[in-house]
């Protein structure tokens, strides 16, 4: 074997893996892998694992223990280990490690592989009230209004142009435009028109009139969610949601007993994800879908609106409790 195949720093191997896979992945997939493997690189540095070729089962076991001690959920750990396993499979294909390292890797088995975190309707209502009072018609207000009212994916929201919004008829058009930099997860099957509630349309109208930058992107399209440089990136939009959903941001209080003056998540927007109460955009989508289900809307109609199969909706997005389902059945059947 050559020297290259018996000696490689973990950081270099991860960077090569991500660089090779990036053209094949959606931006959200790349972000998830990059985030998960950055945790692994932090572990390698702390454990003084300087050569990826020397990784063995003890390192993987220690990584699991370290992440559990960090207080993450078993579902988050499961996802991180899946990312690590994909990376190690690539390392094996490159001749960096033996196949048994991957074959013998044991994933944790969370009791429920379906993520349960979601933004509750009550929390969403508090955020809406905060935005109406303190950040009215800002980009962040428009972003949250779109995500909560429609339940669409963040990448779908990013893909919207000003011309895709129809203010008089209160709806938005969604289009898969891969050649213009805005592909959608389900490609052309995601093309659809989505009705908006009046409250969401009013926010978009005022945002476009007062705070929209009026810029075009690299494809001469006018993005709906825009910075002064053009179409907002997914990472920036994700950061807006992380910052906004910190409870201290929209209520002024910390439900986790932290001193806000000493809390990095409260003081530095770049550390917003370290707040236990903040969520990424996907729990907003899950919360919106759950809210629509609790309102009694048919799953088939929600499936079309949110571009998610009914079976997938049941398995991954229906976060209602059994009590909520029972209460809805009581209401629908007019049981006193």
UniProtKB/TrEMBL annotation:
The lineage of its organism: Archaea, Methanobacteriati, Methanobacteriota, Stenosarchaea group, Halobacteria. It comes from Haloterrigena salifodinae. Keywords: DNA integration, DNA recombination, DNA-binding. Signal peptide: none annotated. CDD domains: DNA_BRE_C (cd00397). One of its GO terms (molecular function) is DNA binding. The keyword rRNA-binding does not apply. GO terms for biological process: DNA integration; DNA recombination. This is Tyrosine-type recombinase/integrase. It comes from the Archaea. The keyword DNA-binding applies. Residues 8-92 form the Core-binding (CB) domain. PROSITE patterns: CB, TYR_RECOMBINASE. PANTHER family: INTEGRASE_RECOMBINASE PROTEIN MJ0367-RELATED, PHAGE INTEGRASE-RELATED. Residues 114-330 form the Tyr recombinase domain.
